[in-house]
Amino acid sequence: MDPGPQHPSTYRHFSPGNAAGSGGGDLLLFLAIPAGRLIGLSASLCSRALSAFVGLLLLPPASLVGALRRAAPSLARAALAFAALAAAFAASLLLGFFLVRRCSVEGPVSVRRPLYFDYTEQQPSAAVSLAGAAASIPAGHSVKVSVALLLPDSDHNRQIGVFQIKAEAIAATGVPIATATRPYMLRYKSGAVRLAQSALAIVPLATGLMGESQSATIRDVLQYREEGNKKKRTGLVRVSLQPRAMTVALPEVYSAEVLVQTALPGWSKALARVFRWSLCVWASGCAYVLLSVLAVCAWVRWRPADRRRVDGRKAIADLGGRDDDGAGELSGDVVVRWRERRGRRQRRIHGGRDGIKRDEGSASAAAVGDLLEPSA
């Protein structure tokens, strides 16, 4: 049976364009479901907490005091357990930080300092002190010294061409630890190349945005290993400029600086340096578990005596609570029963006394009768 023509909007959600839109709606719905559950859980917890608080407010004072007395030992034990765990956690953190601080490997050092050559000397030199706490080189590290120079592109430097750089590591006592030299040759440019470069950069050169200079970086001029002997620890690094053989001309220098870098001696120490905080976390966790186990063992060891003491105190508290809470009951049923028993006891006592009096009266009457019979 033909249902007849349907409105186009009836099947609109099957179109490809709307399918993409429905996919976005499904994604939003998928993300909204956990949020709704979380909000519902939070609302239920808040309602339970509010109802419990209102119930506590509506309780009578006597019942509230009794409930607090019964819950006081449990609350005290919970507070004691929390204090013990917090103390163990703090102690484990301090122990982990102490172990990492005590046993950790010192990191690599990188020092960059400017050099100021003394041109009054035959071989100009400049020294950099490394005796400070921030720039001291750790023992056992590999040390590399590099030098960077900024030289003017002058005719004097072009005529020199080659010169020598000498680097020395000197101890605080003045004893040389290591010495090395390295030659350096200025980059050559022909007259035509210099003329073309000057023509192309005439505007920056004329305005001062560019300068006619070249930089020289001599890497790893000096390499050595720092010793553990205090008398042979590096105190300063000295850099000298030396002319080539058979000449006395030295290069002109705009500025110079020295770079001192250290490296860890082995891969094991480098690995320990990288994962030092992970080791701190693991050490703190192990210490926390150990302290927790020791606390549990101590609690199990002293638990029987404490339990007997607590049971005795609990019994005394229960008796006191019963006396306080049952005062009305004692004044009711118990007092009535006590009065009934007392009345029965008094009736028994008075009934016995009346029987004795009757027996005594009957005996005296019989004796009087016996005396009267002979006379009759």
TrEMBL record:
<keyword id="KW-0812">Transmembrane</keyword>
<feature type="transmembrane region" description="Helical">
    <location>
        <begin position="274"/>
        <end position="300"/>
    </location>
</feature>
<dbReference type="GO" id="GO:0034389">
    <property type="term" value="P:lipid droplet organization"/>
</dbReference>
<protein>
    <submittedName>
        <fullName>Uncharacterized protein</fullName>
    </submittedName>
</protein>
<dbReference type="GO" id="GO:0019915">
    <property type="term" value="P:lipid storage"/>
</dbReference>
<dbReference type="GO" id="GO:0140042">
    <property type="term" value="P:lipid droplet formation"/>
</dbReference>
<keyword id="KW-0443">Lipid metabolism</keyword>
<dbReference type="GO" id="GO:0006629">
    <property type="term" value="P:lipid metabolic process"/>
</dbReference>
<dbReference type="InterPro" id="IPR009617">
    <property type="entry name" value="Seipin"/>
</dbReference>
<dbReference type="Pfam" id="PF06775">
    <property type="entry name" value="Seipin"/>
</dbReference>
<keyword id="KW-0256">Endoplasmic reticulum</keyword>
<keyword id="KW-0472">Membrane</keyword>
<dbReference type="GO" id="GO:0005789">
    <property type="term" value="C:endoplasmic reticulum membrane"/>
</dbReference>
<feature type="transmembrane region" description="Helical">
    <location>
        <begin position="79"/>
        <end position="100"/>
    </location>
</feature>
<feature type="compositionally biased region" description="Basic and acidic residues">
    <location>
        <begin position="351"/>
        <end position="361"/>
    </location>
</feature>
<keyword id="KW-1133">Transmembrane helix</keyword>
<feature type="region of interest" description="Disordered">
    <location>
        <begin position="349"/>
        <end position="376"/>
    </location>
</feature>
